[in-house]
Automatic annotation (TrEMBL), chain A:
Organism, scientific name: Azospirillum lipoferum
Keywords from the named record: Signal
Biological processes per GO annotation: peptide transport
Alphabetical list of InterPro entries matching this protein: Peptide/Ni-bd (IPR030678), SBP_5 (IPR039424), SBP_5_dom (IPR000914)
Lineage, uppermost ranks: Bacteria, Pseudomonadati, Pseudomonadota, Alphaproteobacteria, Rhodospirillales
Name of the protein this chain belongs to: ABC transporter substrate-binding protein
Pfam annotation, one family: SBP_bac_5
Subcellular location: Periplasm
Automatic annotation (TrEMBL), chain B:
Protein name, per record: ABC transporter permease
Species: Azospirillum lipoferum
Keyword Transport: yes
Cross-referenced InterPro entries: BPD_transp_1_N, MetI-like, MetI-like_sf
Xref: SUPFAM superfamilies: MetI-like
GO cellular component: plasma membrane
Principal location class: membrane
Keywords assigned by UniProt, alphabetized: Cell membrane, Membrane, Transmembrane, Transmembrane helix, Transport
TrEMBL record, chain C:
GO biological process: transmembrane transport
UniProt-annotated location(s): Cell membrane
InterPro entries xref list: BP-dependent_transpt_permease (IPR050366), MetI-like (IPR000515), MetI-like_sf (IPR035906)
Bilayer-crossing regions: 7-28, 64-92, 104-127, 133-150, 189-211, 231-257
Pfam family, one: BPD_transp_1
Keyword Membrane assigned: yes
GO cellular component, one term: plasma membrane
Superkingdom classification of source: Bacteria
Keywords from the UniProt entry: Cell membrane, Membrane, Transmembrane, Transmembrane helix, Transport
Protein name: ABC transporter permease
Organism: Azospirillum lipoferum
Family listed: Belongs to the binding-protein-dependent transport system permease family.
Amino acid sequence: MTRFLAALLGMALAAGAATASAQSITVALNADIRSTNPGVNRDDNTDAVVLHMVEGLVGYRANGSVAPLLAESVERSDDGKTYSFRLRQGVTFHNGAPLTSADVLWSWNRYMDPKTDWRCRSDFDGRNGLKVEKVEAPDDRTVTMTLDHASALFLDALARTDCGGTAILHKDSLKPDGSWDKPVGTGPFRFGEWRRGEYVTVSRFDGYQSPPGDKPDGMVGAKRTALASVKFLVVPDASTAKAALASGAVDVAQVLETDVPELNKTKTVEAGFFPSTTKHTFLFQTRDPLLGNVKLRQAIAASLDIPQLVAAVSNGEGKPNNSGVPVTSAYYDAVQAKGYAYDPAKAKALLKEAGYKGEPIKIIANKRVHVPSFNAAVIAQAMMQAVGINAQIEVLEWVTQLDRYNTGNYQMMSFSYSGRLDPALSYEQFSGPKDSQPRKVWDDPAVQDLITKASTISDEAQRQAVFDELHKRQMEATPLIIFSNGQEAWAHTKRVQGADPWEGKARVWGARVVGN
Amino acid sequence: MLHFVFKRIAMAVPTLLIMAVTVFVLIRLIPGDPAALMLGDLATPASLADLRERLGLDQSLPVQFGIWFGNVLRGDFGISITSSQPVLPLVLDRFWISARVVLIAVLLASLFAVPAGMIAAWRQNSGTDLFLVGTATLLYSIPTFWLGLLLLLLFGLELNWLPVVGYVSFSEDPRAALLYIVMPVMTLFLHEMGVLIRMSRASTLEVLRLDYITHARAKGLSETAVLWRHAFKNAFGPTWTLIGLVLGNLLGGIAVVETVFTIPGLGRLLVDAIFARDYPVIQGCLLFVAFVYVAVNLVVDLLYPVFDPRVTAE
Amino acid sequence: MKRLSLNVVLGGAIIGIVIAGAVLGAVWTPYDPLKINFVARLAPPGAAHWLGTDEFGRDVLSRLMAAAATSMLISLSTVAAAGLLGTAVGLVSGYARGWTDRILMAFNDALLAFPAILLALGLLTVAGANSSGIIVALGLAYTPSVARIVRGTVLSLREREFVEASRVMGNSEFYTVLRHILPNCVGPMTVLATSMFGWVLLAESALSFLGLGVPPPAPTWGNMLAGSRPFIAQAVWLGIFPGLCISLTLLGINLLGDALRDRLDPRMRGAS
């Protein structure tokens, strides 16, 4: 982009950047947010914006473990069923009201009310296994929650970003008639204005009390912000976002992988790749007459030069990972690093053993942006064809592919799972009984037991042993081929520092404006 | 006159009714569940059931239709599944964005193309005619999405005169808005020039062949007088009808131009809604387009007598 | 007439080349149009790849040829489908008249009130975005225009002497339609079919461009053009050649269509 074009775009888009004070930045969203109501009507953009304004009792660290957020400490009873949250002192809501255990109770009751439509209600009312039986507030600063059985994942579920972090809200978030108004939370930013289809603004909450830490760490760590305000600008088109970065109209944006080298050539922009726990995979339907044969699945795995495939879909930046444990996880070590080996000769031998006679194998893929589905499928097809597998690609609309995914109606599919920080949750995403949940790919009762074990015990060494065992079994059974975790391309202008995204979402409380 | 208006409106009612049913049934036949789409791979059977209930998708189709159609009659087009915005304001907002581009382009194209077509007809088979018809056929043969891409390459990337993609509203920054709108308008303008020159030439030729022109010529009227007083005046009527048709068709075809230039217009809204299975928005868009189409044709028909003295509204 | 022959020569030459390319593309292409070659990624036009390669290193010329075959096949089948269905509806409606006519035409007009591309867009998502889905969707979307024209022709013919005569002679309705009315629809139908071929080609490209047409990796001109957008600044040829193919083919069809109209539609003789 030349300067002239940049200037034009600047005039067009930079109204905010030009007029606001120095400590203000503009972040591009590739779609408008769906609501400001945490965990109700949401997508990734919504979570990203909302989590700048609200906080829950606990939050994720970057390595996937859960840390206290509004809580100062969390204690678990010996039987693992009762959690006691001690609230931090001096925390206030955006309206100045102090945070008390009554607010936690109110928020919880609101979430568990079916009328709220909280998307995670079924994870806590027993419908998905776990049930919170009792929530009490023994004093102003203490909340206890009692579960029906011990679980290592209860805190994870509370911290989940798609649940809105189970944010604690003030009653003023609702209108007098009980409907949603705006988030009155405890986050580092307070809600400003939402012009639908155009932008959302938030401004610094001066009364903010940060959790301990010297730098941002996932959703916890140092969260007090130097920024006076942030404008989340809706820029649906990737090429517009790119031009806007070059002109300085936008400071932070997700960009296309293929645009990173070009952006890094410009003087004012810095682009890079940021890992997330998203899993990019090829799923197999193990009930397919053909792919039910483990030898054939192993042959496909051996036919794929995964490092080359990953390099091709991530512009050389991605790191291969065949394990259900994300590379960023505290549980990722030497065992998980041992993945499939590219071995065409072995692939051909396995094909012979499997009795494969050139039957077509259809790979379903979609063409969404920021997801390597189609590109990965095209490359896998070429690699599979090279060893004599008659691979074909069927491109479907994403919604149609989801339908096929949910019903298990496919042979092979290039599919990306959204991020799960805890490995047990990550394995749970693709493992389970196909009879009751056709979308699951790995149907093995022994595996189910292992995952349940990892979900119940809290000892880290014991959990590590379970995850190691799961990895070995997954490599053997090959119900799916995970090829990498997410590598999202983001760029920011050089006037802004510390605006690194987290888990594919913009996170700018640690950002500072260093120049103009 | 009033009788004619009522008759035309009455004729449009069954058309719109059939369309409402067709649209509703058609999009329910599309595979894919909007609730599943919103929850993505995070869906659990329980959360899916909750959401389907909230969106009213758990009701039977006739019940859903009854509710929707009843609301439409009251002017309530429902609420978008994905953005939870009311559909009608959303559609109107986006419509104005599209309409601005389309109206400017068609207006400009008519100003140039209608006289050009008449001249071509008047000088039929001359060099001028050949040139005009040749140019028109060429312009008409280039699809708008490629023409747009070419303009974008030339003025946006090669010469750097105009911003490449995006949209700025006039209320925000009129100057920038104008710059952004130039290329989309130019694309449609060039294409519609091709269409309209051919149409205007054809209708003028037809008039020129009519007996009364021969008669007028035989009366010894000057060629200019024949053309102005008889031919062009009468040729404009049919051309006017065609401009109406062009406007209606453009609303359908604008989606591609909006995709090329990433304009958040009605076409883009519809295509995005189809991808998202946002039933209320798809229904609202299609019904609105059909309504505009019928309305434009109605207005054109009503104004026809103004341009064509041979026809009276009675 | 001078212009007529120019139309025929130019249009015929263009369409001839396109058809030749399509036929050749169906049996032979310089490279496998789906073959990936990462070494030659985004190679500009040159000796090895005359029209360059795309982001997967696939040969653009080979893909254009394969796409020509696909597009021609889709357009022909669609025109045939719409022509047959539309003629059937038009004949029944025009000949039966009365309530049958009124109901059929009410539906027909309602469908006509949608811009065809929108109707196709809706139908396509129902039928599924693949070659047969496109034929079904576009075929149905263009049926109303055919039905309307055939019905008009039938209405104007049925009162004519030779039709009356056939009826008076005791021939069955069916025979009369088949023997006397249908042949007279051929003229206007040919003119319509030619234009329709162009519309369908355009619609198919437009739908592919919107991401709703023939799904990749199988090439069509429309999806090649759509796929070129992210690379347009680095690899201009990816955007130029598919568009050129679409435009030239449409130009050829329009020129031939004009010539055909001049010859077959005496009312329009001399008009463009």
